[in-house]
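chain below, 428 aa
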Amino acid sequence: MKLQRLRRQVLKLTVIMGLLLVLLAINNPKSGWDPSYVLRYSWLEYTHKDGGPERVCDCSAILRGDREAVDQAKILTITKDFRKSILVPDDYYINATQDCKAFKQSRKYLTFPLSQEEEDFPLAYSMVVHHKVQNFERLFRAIYAPQNYYCVHVDKKSDASVRSAIKAIVSCFPNVFMVSRAVSVIYSGWPRVQADLNCMADLVEMSTKWKYFINVCGQDFPLKTNLEIVRALRSLRGGNSLESEKMPDYKKWRYSYVHQLVNGSVQRTEEAKKPPPFNLPILSGNAYIVVNRGYIRSVLRDKRIKALIKWSKDTYSPDEFLWATIQRMHGVPGSTRPNHKYDMTDINSIARLVKWAWHEGSEESEDTVYPECQGNHVRSICVYGAGDLQWLLENHHLFANKFDADSDPIAIYCLEKYLRQKALAELR
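prediction:
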């Protein structure tokens, strides 16, 4: 009897203390805790039930770089049954989006801005994809916010099931649309640039509100929350952030000779190209950029840039010099001078973090740019594994490339959980 009375007294004291804490939080807004948070937003949190078979991994330990947790994840990703169980067919998305409300709830999409700061600073995204709908949907969910705008370009060569599934996903969101003019994208050819150009034009027509443009592909993934991205862009003070540096000699052949598209590939001819218009210095860069709205307006309207675009159409991999060259043109909003002192490498920009095979190595080596890839390589680019996550999150970049749910879904799953928990912590 005495024990029961003691338990009841302890329970009463616990309830009273809880009520006092709630009252204290309500009357002291500086405490930073909203007692209604749990009721309003807890459904957005990723729980142990969310995700597929990869949820057995310890993401907290993986993100800390715990060797045992990383090794367990690596072993799991090469298990035959695991690899088979993680595949999500395109039909799933076609069927699931028949009820958009249920789809958004089950996938825990953010349906309201998480802060006034984010609502006042909308972004515009160009998303160029050609396969792997699961990759696209997980990337899209990770960057989706209702105040932003999204143009989705699906390669005209893509399978019908891919186009149908992505179109079905897009149809559930009023601020997301399919590009008005899709093209057949060719690796290292002009159509890759044209896909982004078409989305740029559509996004400018779509809204006058967005502040910055970011282009992504289906195998990108964010390293920052939307709020962190907004704050990083605000800190640019109207500037742009993209790779733009002196063109190395071994790449100059790409625009010194005329190239042709033959049977879906880019082939060099022996015909020499004329110098670039206006004697513009050609800079080296990459396809992925973070630029302000004024930069995009210049791309679409500036006569010098239109001439440069026309000149670039028969070159090799124009996406790896066009944006970088425009960034150094006088009068383009957010641009810098072509002087070498303004050169910016991919490591120093915030646009994209990529591990190239020839820059990997031991941390003790002075020639090493980054540690060895913990996943696998495709076209000399690291497809990240779970073991890369700790290093990725230590960097300042907004996005990283490449991720693949088919080869290592654990890396994506742990990033998803990390970003969602961080976003909701910012909300609290």
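The two ends are 43 Å apart (CA to CA). The longest helix spans residues 2-27.
thats it, cya
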